[in-house]
Amino acid sequence: MKRFFAYISALAAVTAFSFCTLKASAEEPDSAMQYRRSSLYSFMVSHPDLKMDDEIVGAFMALETPDKYNNHDLSIKCITAYSKKEDLRREVEAWFQRNDVAKRMVSKWFMRNKVTGGFDPSLVMERGLYGATAMDIETAAQSRRGIDALGDKGYEMISNTFVIVNDITYVDHEKNADIATGILSIIGGIAAAASDDENNIVTGLTTLGAMVSSMIAGFTVRVNSYLYQLEWDDRTADTFYNLYYYDKPATDSASLAAFAADTAIAAKKAAYEADDTTFRLKYVGEYVARSAKPVLRGLYNPEDVFRKVCARAIDNNVMELQKKFDQFKVKVPLFSTEPLMARIGMKEGVTAKSKFEVLVPVFDEATGKVRYNRKGVIRPVAGKIWDNRYMASEEQATGSELTATTFEVVSGMNFTPGMLIREIK
Amino acid sequence: MNKHLIITAAVIMTAATAAAQTLIPYQSGNRWGYKDASGKVIVNAVYEAVSLPADGYGLVAGNVDGSLKWGIVGQDGRTVIEPAYDYIDLYNEGMVAIYKGPVHNSEEGLYMSGGLWGYMDLGKPGEEFKLLFDAAGPFVDSVAWVNCVRTASKRQRRTMPIVDKKGKPIGENIIFGVSGTFSMEDMFLSEGGDGPVIPDGAWVLMDRSGNALTDTDAPYQAVGEFKEGLAWVKRNGLYGFVNNRGTEVIPAVYVMVQDAPGSRPSSLLLHPESGAVRWVMNDKGQMAWIDSEGHVVVDFTDFDGKVSVFDTVNENMWDY
Predict the structure, then answer these.
(1) Where are the domains of chain B?
(2) Of B7, B9, B161, which is closest to A212 when you measure between CB atoms?
(3) Which residue in B10, B168, B266 is closest to A183 by CB distance?
(4) CATH number of the structural domain B227-320
(5) What's the average model confidence in pLDDT over B20-46?
(6) Cα A33 to Cα B115: distance, rounded to the nearest angstrom
(7) A interface mutation test: which of B63, B87, B108, B163 has the most A CBs within 10 A?
(8) Average pLDDT over residues A278-298
(9) Angle at B281 between CA B277 and CA B285, to 5 degrees
(10) Top-confidence range, A22-26, B36-40, B115-119
(11) Does the pLDDT value for residue A325 go beyond 90?
(12) How many Cβ pairs within 8 Å bridge chains A and B?
């Protein structure tokens, strides 16, 4: 336990410490990109009674966590449900409860060992201390403020943990696909009629195209995304730290023997495993949309198409959920001020009409928590918006050749690299 | 009607949209060539068809004595391989597969069958591999699968349809390179809408020098593409996995394995920290998860890979 609190103390202090040194720590853009991201468990509901279900599941399972979030996936990524289910949300929430999903997400934060039940704060440290050096941590651990300000950064990061449940259904365009096939057959017919040579290498090309097209040209999905947030308030955190937390044992035999003989630890382990009420997910909201028609340019096979359609549909829903719910909005650091640039783009819904506030995190010693003060407002420069949508570069989309979006100042001044930006309505 | 109508249609969209590519197909009259992004002609429009470029190379077709022959051009406009082959495909890691033999046409499309495949290193153009095969896969991580016995397999020409903004198909792109989603099944012709038909062969893993890395006395009847260093293999009707050094790290003793044809995607994502890399299924229909050394990480369980919304998931299926 001591070791844990030493870590958390260090964490909190370095939070404050790193705010003072943001400019320096932001010199490493990739490091800055990983700073203070929310964490996300992305999850899907599939419908085996519908067409293309395996293809959709295969595509979803191959997708990575959106890059503005820490990957907080658990091992189960997909559950099945009958497509006509009237109250899917209630069933999914019952599944969360029955399978202790919220508690498992806390266990992942603290890398709980399922055998010993011991916790390890290194993931909290890792996600919270980007940009901090070992000396920073050492200094923070020794500071009075670090000890006094227990847990802030850990608290904030853990409370910004989300589950997004994507209910994905195939939109059956059989009628449209038949039309498409018919068109190709006509083209093929013309080509075949134009040549008497049965071995003409050209005549066979469209027939294959027709078969592939009928399956993929009209491939669209409907995605209903439900957003949940891990409840991590003072009461929950206190319960966890005071009743359940203990460090995982060292691996030498003496430590393991002492650990095994410790009845207090055994009681904590049993209590944590039996607790099915403390840890919960709260429903935030939902968004439903149908994917756009696939752009096949630059794709190599149907699997590419399924992935692209699913990825873009999910990204779109994530973006819309960000717009609807402030707590889910991503905060991204500026990595350059001359010009103003940040690695956020069309995938996050950036348009020429978007506006972003520039934020400075302030450590409030009184509450031990972090708040964000607005330093100014910026907007994207038309024509310099990064197209970072899934497979945009393969599609040769305008803006996909960029690596970040360029902004201009609407109000405020003295922006520095590392300051965070967040979209405003 | 010009016989090249369809190939022409195939590249119209490409020409219009591939602005950032170094080789951009363009049409002049009925012939095709490549321009660069600035519109400068790189390869004169003298070809019957051209492919999408792959890593700076383009596949081109010329009419030689009344039939199409295929060659390769580089992004500097030079001819790397004269159009002399019946087909060329699977460009990856500087290697291409070259085909010599008949090209057939059927209801399902164009396919190659009855000929032989070899390889050519584009760093040494003109020097064909001495070994020839019934079928050949792409080089990935400097190794490739080759089938060493005659089969009736039908190797299709890999294409993707081009559709307009309304989804109306207007042609096809010819695919020359190998993407990260490449599947060995992509190479074979689909028949009757049931997916590709791939007859049993005798597949061996080979390095760039032509050395066999797997046992030639016990070849595989079917094989899959490499993903993260492992490829599924099938011998005597049972499946396992081989690494890219040719070692059968997960023995071919299972009735089904992850990614093999007919396998269904699992609901379970085993995280790298758990060590599991693939699932396998035994003859009782039970699944287990195996690490890259072949050790069982999650032992055989009745879990069938799908979790229902009504299920309480077995504790050993959870990583935390």
Answers:
(1) 227-320
(2) B161
(3) B168
(4) 2.40.10
(5) 87
(6) 53
(7) B163
(8) 91
(9) 150
(10) B115-119
(11) yes
(12) 209
